[in-house]
Amino acid sequence: MITAPALAALPGIRHAFFTREGGVSEGIYAGLNCGFGSGDEEWRVAENRGRAMERLGLPASALATLHQVHSPTVVEATAGWPRGQSPRADAVVVTAPGTAAGILTADCTPVLFADAAAGVVAAAHAGWRGALEGVLGATVEAMTARGAVRGRITAAIGPCIGQPSYEVGAEFRDRFTAVDAGFDRFFAPGVRPGKFQFDLPAFAAMRLEEAGVGTVERQSWADTVPEPERFFSYRRATLRGEPDYGRALAAIALAG
């Protein structure tokens, strides 16, 4: 698992960006696939999630993950939801010690947040759509509504698709520049004519800074696409013609 130094330095905070290493799944899901939404065997996913929580010193039932829909919707969790009852949202806030806020990714940006002094943590799933539509700012708003202070919040960006791997078309770039012409700076010329390379983690970092987050941790960045032994990747699976892909877990909790 990967930890962010800025979060690791905070008292009473447990967190991890889990890689695909160490689980019981096999085949295209090999390793620590934590996504029930994949086609993997459910018992394997449940075992993987339990192993991940054990690494954080928590029971499997403490993990609160979502039915992710690429939205700016944020919810609060006081415990893990029963299987099949997770709310449709893309960020979860926790103030209850011993409950882990978790999200799943396979190229999208996982972001973990904490204000240790206020006792508020959160996890957000920010793909391009969620990042553009404001899920990260909405997460900060939800945290401040529960006592966090913007300038005291630490946010860490975990492994996601990197700019060299994220080729997009002109219509994709146009979605961003239609919102703000200045967003063009997140697109580099592509190798192929008419294509561009989008810098998703840099865009997410900008959104966090825009929301007034005090510390944005960038040391945990890694490109998920070119490292098949470490990371799951939707784009890599698509390019290979694979029918599905595993999901990596990122989670954060207040020590009980």
UniProtKB/TrEMBL annotation:
SUPFAM superfamilies, per the entry: CNF1/YfiH-like putative cysteine hydrolases
Keyword Transferase carried by entry: yes
Catalysis: reaction(s): adenosine + phosphate = alpha-D-ribose 1-phosphate + adenine; adenosine + H2O + H(+) = inosine + NH4(+); S-methyl-5'-thioadenosine + phosphate = 5-(methylsulfanyl)-alpha-D-ribose 1-phosphate + adenine; inosine + phosphate = alpha-D-ribose 1-phosphate + hypoxanthine
Keywords noted in UniProt: Hydrolase, Metal-binding, Transferase, Zinc
Keyword Lipid biosynthesis in annotation: no
Lineage top rank: taxon: Bacteria
GO MF assignments: copper ion binding; hydrolase activity; S-methyl-5-thioadenosine phosphorylase activity
Family as reported in the entry's similarity comment: Belongs to the purine nucleoside phosphorylase YfiH/LACC1 family.
Identification of the protein by name: Purine nucleoside phosphorylase
